[in-house]
Amino acid sequence: MTDESPAAGTPQIAKPHTNLRSNRMPSLRCLRDYNAQTFLADLAAGVTVGIVALPLAIGFGIASGVTPAQGLWTAIIAGFLVSALGGSKVQIGGPTGAFVPILAAIVAQYGYDGLALATIIAGMVLFAMGALKLGNLIKFIPYPVVAGFTSGIAVIIFIGQLKEFLGLRVAMPLHTIHQLATLAQHIFETHAPTVALGALALALSFFWPKKWRAIPPSIVAIVVPTVLIALLHPQGVQTIGTKFGGIPQTFPALHLPVVTFARVQELMMPALTIAMLGAIESLLSAIVADGMIESHHDSNQELIGQGIANFLCPWFGGISATGAIARTATNVRSGAKTSVAGMIHALTLLVVVLIAAPLAKFIPLAALSAVLFGVAYRMGEWDNFVTLARGPRSDYLVLLITFLLTVTFDLTIAVGVGMLLAGALFVRQMEEITHIKLVTDQKDVSLGSDSIHDKNVPEGVVVYRIEGPFFFGVAEKLELALTGARAIPRIVILRMRNVPAVDATGLRALEIMLERFHRKGTQLILSGVQAQPMKVFFESGFVDKIGLDNICANIDASLARSLAMTQ
Questions:
Q1: CA 240/CA 291 separation, integer angstroms
Q2: CA of 390: how far to CAs of 404, 416, 519, in Å?
Q3: Rounded to an integer, what distance in angstroms lies between the CA atom of residue 295 and that of residue 7?
Q4: pLDDT digit string, tens, across residues 420-477
């Protein structure tokens, strides 16, 4: 793949006087050198990804507990706005599989009106995150957590589509474990013609010849069973027409959700879940796109664009949307050059709705389920279970727990527990690499001028070396090391040249130690303090307590200071 990206290595990007808004929004930046050749490339890519998005938008709408039309209009409205206002020039926005279990649960509990209000709130949260420049927070979410809930969502999608694929006419419970039990109870009620059409669609999705891939397999998997339905009219096969009455060939009516303070309170947690997942999914998609086109997205502008899209979609009957990794990758592989391709993708879907909507009534739900099976298989990234098993056990544990909690409970609990577990394991790892040791002439392993070999260490002076970040997880080590001294020293030198950071708990441990030393008549000297700890010491007033003269640049200056104090 080749991509003529003007952003790669060009000095114009780094100029500080460039207009901020036009520099951040690819939809405006790309228009500077836009020409007919670029438009033709964007047109081809936009139409292609629009065709690919058609069955996915319908399928995700149905799987989320709303109508296929609502899924389509979400892809149209959000797809256009994300491309026009987002921070990635090739990002494709719309309904995604990651949202399916969350939205279905919200619809089941609160109805569509509740989902609409939760999505509007989520849009405001996403906009605020972008405006406050919180886009880079995605890097603080551990990869095992992301991999765990992504694979869990894939399992939920797969199990959730089995009812339609098997042609069962039963009410499905909300949670996955209960769904499996229900499926097992009614497995002998499977409808053979429905399964046959679903199996045909599944085979076409996975085994469509590569030489014919100019026609997307997902489209073939929908069109062929739909044609068979229109010609043969098999009895008992559920279609979009039989279940939803088809897709209206008109623009959606304005939808105004009921807004009350009590309702907002009730939906705040679902809204935060939508916002969190939307931010993660869209920024991960943008990162993937960056690697494909060798460019860089603006994460904060991307969140702003996602926020506006999610805020406006529910006003027209839409649902939550985010960046779609698979459709974005298709957009890039189809030759997209700018964000215009994403806008054309939305307009392509609009044309389909306004012209060909009546034909959608023949689409069998089993074929859509087969397409979503493929989505679930590809989004699961099952090789992570093998790859992470070969790495640290703690990472593999986080992956498994996040995965299992996603499947058995819900995404909010899974991500929350996964983040807490990952954070606790990280603290333990940091605690293990931070050491506080007594340094003597025989034990000092330092080299050159930093060593105390053959240096005059005055009587009554002891030297301790701290290695690693000094934070709440290791503050107790300092107290244990100092209480191990046989006699009360006159002066304690703490060598901190290998301490990159100090937090509030570490600072408090130093303050307590300083107060204890003052009561015993012991002086404290800090040696080789780095920039971040020194900043903390100044801002907290610790420098005034210890005295600036007692913070020395290196061990030689510290020993000279201690010698002057003992004379």
A1: 38
A2: 19, 25, 52
A3: 6
A4: 888 788 777 777 777 777 776 545 444 444 566 667 788 888 888 888 888 766 656 6
Q: Where are the alpha helices (DSSP H) in 233-260?
A: 240-244
**Mean pLDDT of all residues in 508-521:** 85
CA 407 to CA 388: how far, in whole Å?
Answer: 19
| CB environment 343-358: b (16+ within 10 A), e (fewer) | bbbbbbbbebbeeebe
- Per the CB < 8 A criterion, the answer to whether 204 and 218 are in contact is no
Q: Which fold has domain 435-566?
A: Transcription Regulator spoIIAA (3.30.750)
Which helix H or strand E contains 440, and what residues bound it?
none
Alpha carbons 212 and 192: distance in angstroms, whole number: 30
Tokens at 156, concatenated = 């939920």
- 209, exposed or middle or buried, with CB in 10 Å at 0-12, 13-18, 19+? exposed
The dihedral through the CA atoms of 486, 488, 489, 494 has a sign that is positive
* Other CB atoms within 10 A of residue 476 CB: 13
| Domain extents in the chain | 381-433, 435-566
Which of 71, 48, 69 minimizes the C-alpha distance to 372?
Answer: 71
Q: Which two tokens stand for residue 336?
A: 């997209």
